[in-house]
Design a protein that fits this description.
The chain is of the alpha+beta class. The chain has three domains: about 5-70, Uridine Diphospho-n-acetylenolpyruvylglucosamine Reductase, domain 2 (2-Layer Sandwich), CATH 3.30.43; about 75-220, Uridine Diphospho-n-acetylenolpyruvylglucosamine Reductase, domain 3 (2-Layer Sandwich), CATH 3.30.465.10; about 225-335, Uridine Diphospho-n-acetylenolpyruvylglucosamine Reductase, domain 1 (Alpha-Beta Complex). It has eight helices and 19 strands. It has a five-stranded antiparallel β-sheet with strand order 6-7-12-10-11, with no helix packed on it. Strands 1-2-5-3 form a four-stranded mixed β-sheet, covered by helices on one side. The longest helix has 19 residues, at about 305-325.
Amino acid sequence: MTPQFDADLLPLNTLGIPSQADALAEIETAEQIPAWVDWAIQRELPIRVLGGGSNLLLDARVDGLVIAMRTQGREVVGQDDQGRTLWRLSAGENWHQCVVASIDAGLNGLENLALIPGSVGAAPIQNIGAYGVEVGDLLHELEAYDCQARQWVRFNAEQCELGYRDSRFKREENRYIVTAVTLALSSDFRPQLSYGPLQALADQDQLNARQVMEAVIAQRQSKLPDPQFIPNAGSFFKNPEVDQSVVNTLKSQWPELVAFPSGDRWKLAAGWMIDQCGLKGQANAAGVGCYAKQALVLVNPDHAEYQQVADWQQRVQQAVVDRFGVLLEREPRYWGPQGSGHY
């Protein structure tokens, strides 16, 4: 059992950052995981789990064993107490392909989450979301291997402790290796059209999930770059959550401020704030910058190294703090040398 040493991670991260891992193991079946975990622990190496590489910020060197999940499989495993179909997906499955497959099978609920890059296993870790829907809204069960206890575990949706782009798995990064996700999907179509670009569909006769999915795909393609052609990690910053008092203060200065309710708080549109700072379409000398069609997306067309990306991140954050007094939090996870302090 030998991994790839000094493995090239450039083709495995959508932000296109040159990087090498100490070791890389590609996993085809979940049963391989315990042996690789033992291998890493015996050598006192950290364990990192790689899905589609779409939500990562890599340093030039990544310490430890990177486990790349390549497991495949989709199956219906029953119904929940609400009569929804329980659909079990292996962690290595491509997320968007599963969305399309669900629509083809007459299963509804995932249509708003179309064209999000990455793997199924990464979806609950980040609690991916778009256009008013999060994967946590549909999650029934998650299966994983606990690298600390060295045992297989299962979590229901509540035990996953999901939040806005957050979960217990993100907070305890790389303790758990997600192996499968079971979603609860309905044969009844109940469209979620609250998000601006989708509201126009509400008046459409005989609307179905495929039409919503196609509208979401068209919207994303119109404003988000394809990482195959322009390296990027999607939305690079979270929409900050603030209290009503902060919204009131900001609106007194910027009446056009874009904000929307989130429970008892408000989310500010990070992309709008970055745009107001004049950074949309701008870049540094290394080519790292904010995409011309969506300021929230950081692009790296020339495959600049980590430090150039980090420099642009800090420039954007400082500009927003100076103008609005709000600190933007980075969405992608950082991987690099142990103890580097960038996490």
